[in-house]
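Hey, can you fold this?
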Amino acid sequence: MKNWMMVGLLASTMLIGCSARVKVAAQVKTPEPAPQQEPAVEEPKEGEAIALPDQIEFELDQARIKQTPKTLSTLQQLADLMKSHPRITKLRIEGHTDDTGSTEHNAKLSTARAKAVAKWLEQHDVPATRLTTAGYGASRPLESNASALGRAKNRRTEYYVEELDGARVPADGDGAAKTKVAAGTAGGGGKSAN
């Protein structure tokens, strides 16, 4: 009987030993993957357009930015673009309207809307020294103002790189910088109508 106890003790010791080995083997840690590096942000190139997905919407006949998720997301993308491209030392924000209303009213409204976008960007950590604004009223239409769709496309904000690394970007025949960063129109019935 003593022999059987010895065999049983030996067998249980072997089983425990096997179990311990399996347990140790199960605790072997796999090496952690190397931290992923974020892809390098490409610097802007002259003439390169960077499109925003949507247009910034304004309240009807006002320079107050609509607080919709789409508009706020578009503004945030513009702010992120400026933060990730420090070479853009001056961004020109242009406001445009359709031809509804007087020339003077549209000039003031388009200027006020461009300034509203600049103010929002300043409040979201884009230095005011990197921004400039211009309002063109209805003087630079993209489409005919004869239809509702054309008027909606003419109500827009556009963004141009005016300086890279402190040097002015060459202008085209209209005096506009060649490097258009983004543009959009108020589609779907012209939500940012004059």
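Oh, and this one too while you're at it.
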Amino acid sequence: MTNHALLVIDIQNDYFPGGRHSLVNTEKALSHSLLEIDRALKKNETVIIIQHIHTVGGPFFRLGSLGAANHPHIEAVAAKKGTTIYLTKSQRNSFIDTDLANILEKRHIQSLTICGMKTDWCVTETSLAALKNGYQVKVIESACTSLSEDIHQQAIQNLSDHGVQIC
């Protein structure tokens, strides 16, 4: 076990074409995230798949809906082998009302690589919270996306300005 973990945030069906809140460049972000998952599992690193769930009346990621499910490719790669943990959340920040902090502490994790969707919401909020909590944080730019390329790039710049390593 290493002291590094990969967080895969909200790569869920509703963000893909035909979903309730589709983003741009989802296939690119998905393919790069899959590469990151494979890389982490080969190194025996902890992979944490984080899934956002809204109440039944939420705008998207509705509890029990197909849109709220993790993308099937994420499930397939993560299930192959390794140390994969699944978490659900209801906030943009993956540390709020989840066991994420406890999991990282118990595994002596000191650094995080983050990929996922949406760059300007959940990726940003989780990355900044991780920094505040003393973790080294790296975001894989090509494995993230948002509503537009401009919004994605603004979020990446914001993360960089706050000390997140962008790769």
